[in-house]
Amino acid sequence: MTPGTRPPIAVICALDDELRHLRDALPPGRQEWHGNRSAWHTELDGQPIVLALCGIGMISASFILYFKRGDPVNFLLTMGTMFFGNVLFPAKVLPPAIAWVSDWFPMSWSLRIVRGALLQGVGFHEVSGPLLRLAVLTALLVPAGLYSAKLSIRKAKQEGSLVQY
Prior knowledge:
By secondary structure, the chain is mainly alpha-helical. Helices cover 67% and strands 2% of the residues. The radius of gyration is 18 Å and the shape is globular.
């Protein structure tokens, strides 16, 4: 295996570390209470979304390497997340014809998890559905990000433009 064909080890190590941290924080028998929040609520503050955003970040970086422009991807991701990600308003107020788009943004599921766990104090079983959906999105986005990084790095090496970065 040549160095160019190996997956980026830093990304794999970071993902592995995040998964271990989340796994260690969520066993059902380990829910010590600290005031109104359990220990697992604290761990859900940002861990799941970090994994999903790794995939999106790799896709965005790959776009920059491949096309030498980053404005369109950053704009679409930012505006899409703000509009469809339940950040400015809930997706329920959108017309049904476009409300389904909200389900494809990791921020939407992450905000449901965080709002349920931290603001409403719901148990793990109530947020397990959104957590599973976020895990599925992560399972799709991270390999897509790795694959797009592989393609864009290959093209940049062929053109000799990798030195610019």
